[in-house]
Design a protein that fits this description.
single chain, alpha/beta, D-Maltodextrin-Binding Protein, domain 2, six-stranded mixed sheet, globular
Amino acid sequence: MQEKYLKIKIWQLVVAILLLYGGLWGQNSVYVFATTLTRPAIMEKALEAKLPGANVKVFARYADFQALVKKDNPQVVVCPLMAKESAQIGGKIALSGVTKGATEQNLLWVSIDEEFDLGANPKANIGLMDVGGRANMRTHLRKIAGQEARIRLASKLEDLLPMLTFKSADAILVTESDFDAIKSRSQAALKSKSSGHKMNNIIVINNGSGADKVIAAFKTFTKSEMSMLGVEQWK
């Protein structure tokens, strides 16, 4: 009788632990949109290993991310600051990505064979990744390149290089980390030049109750896991 009672108490304890574990993780959704060459399925698998029980979704395209993040209202959102503002995501910025000691990076003009000269080509076709919708990206580009520059939007980072190789863009505009990623996978004679402008790194947003445990887990990411998000550490 005593042995049976002990087994029941142990089982009740196990159930209580599982319920607590589910309360900490299972109710949390984590939506990620990053400018990266890492495949969404690979990133999801890596994040799920760090965030057991959380509902992780990784988006390669801003349009898909924007449509679902407002509809589903996940507790944790990871995205560029421009995407947060464009998609009108509420919540508090809990973590900011850091590269080279700063939470922002230089934006580079990237071209093939010769450095891009905006002054000599003010009506240039400029390729850049969509992180905020066409209207917002057009406004962003005009602040940097002027009113005459023509925008060529890519829905994914990997689509930018073909714009140069097939000459549908005179130059592309990317962050330093995105340039490093593109360059590592290309044999083209890529040339980079500072645009004189910067862009904020990716951020982690606390968008709902119960998200603290998940956000704390982001701080345990390894160097390779951080590199998938284009940053070196969190601040």
